[in-house]
Design a protein that fits this description.
Blueprint (H helix, E strand, L loop, with lengths): L15 H31 L5 H10 L6 H13 L3 H26 L3 E2 L2 E2 L1 H5 L1 H19 L6 H24 L7 H26 L6 H22 L1 H7 L4 H7 L5 H21 L7 H15 L5
Antiparallel strand pairs: 1-2
Helix pairs in contact: 1-2, 1-3, 1-4, 1-6, 2-6, 3-4, 3-8, 4-6, 4-7, 4-8, 7-8, 8-9, 9-12, 9-13, 11-12, 12-13
Length: about 300
């Protein structure tokens, strides 16, 4: 899953002029930090002896992407008043893990194209693709090493969410799709995508000593991940049918549901509604970007045009 979503302004507050200034300031700071995150990621994978894995990792990073997870970390960090260096570390760590997972996923699924270019395994071979992904995972832990006294907490959370991500991928690869229920599908979708959507906000809350909001953050990530996977499935029914990929519409169709696309649309809307509501309840507007993304995707599904 690759979300191409930018940072949006808050549009909330008692008076228009200060709100506009605040939103502009937050957006500007966010773009500056995002540039620093790009530089940090490249530096982290370049600190080892020059190798094919290093070249492949840099090649993959230079292909771009929405950097949605980095943006979540940046926006949440700015909202919570976290030090820029720590925001940068969290954003780089989460984005490196996400990109490592893309390299490994493409290899496992034999997907040949990523971001309009040949996948890493196509250009560099299977073995180098494995090593490039591993290098990025190592670099993610390196990104958190400079987080001072908070490093141990952040590294533990990173490790836990990577474990969940791997379990979700295992379930996707090993489960016989023809016997899955919609509940099974949702658990797999949440496991594959949810951990890295939860993590940027979760680590930001940890840095701000707001541990009591972690459960809400986890629920936000789960609902958004399921909703987005369903959103994606609705666009890819034909491709997934021919390729045998897991798809919510096909899961319901196999069970004999009379309107699988309508049911998946309804469920996706429900998940986006939950994600938006829960995200808006997080402290200091730290879930704002996730809430805006959920609202945007829900409106695309329902055809809403109001702002």
């Amino acid at each position: 899953m690759s979300l191409q979503l930018g940072i949006v302004s808050t549009g909330a507050g008692p008076s228009p002029a200060p709100v506009t200034a605040l939103a502009d300031h937050r957006r500007t700071d966010g773009e500056v930090l995002l540039t620093r995150v790009e530089q940090r990621m490249a530096l982290l994978v370049s600190t080892t002896t020059r190798s094919a894995a290093q070249l492949a990792a840099l090649h993959h990073l230079r292909a771009g992407g929405g950097r949605f997870r980095a943006r979540l970390a940046i926006d949440a960090g700015l909202a919570l008043g976290i030090a820029p260096d720590h925001i940068e570390s969290v954003a780089a760590a989460v984005e490196l893990v996400h990109n490592a997972s893309l390299i490994h996923d493409d290899l496992q699924d034999r997907d040949e194209v990523r971001r309009g270019r040949p996948a890493v395994w196509v250009d560099f071979g299977d073995a180098v693709a494995v090593s490039a992904g591993d290098l990025m995972l190592s670099a993610a832990y390196g990104a958190l090493a400079s987080s001072g006294s908070a490093a141990a907490v952040l590294i533990e959370r990173l490790h836990r969410r990577i474990g969940e991500l791997i379990r979700g991928q295992d379930a996707d690869l090993s489960g016989p799709a023809q016997h899955l229920t919609l509940a099974d599908y949702e658990n797999i979708a949440a496991g594959k995508s949810g951990p890295l959507l939860i993590l940027p906000v979760e680590m930001s809350l940890a840095l701000a000593d707001l541990e009591t909001s972690q459960t809400t953050a986890a629920a936000c990530g789960r609902h958004f991940a399921i909703g987005y996977q369903m959103f994606d499935d609705l666009r890819d029914v034909a491709i997934d049918r021919s390729g045998g990929a897991l798809n919510a519409v096909l899961v319901l169709a196999r069970s004999g549901h009379p309107d699988p696309e309508g049911q998946v649309t309804e469920r996706a809307v429900q998940h986006f509604d939950q994600a938006e509501s829960l995200s808006r309840s997080l402290p200091a507007g730290s879930g704002r970007l996730l809430a805006e993304a959920a609202r945007k995707l829900r409106r695309q599904l329902t055809g809403e045009t109001r702002t």
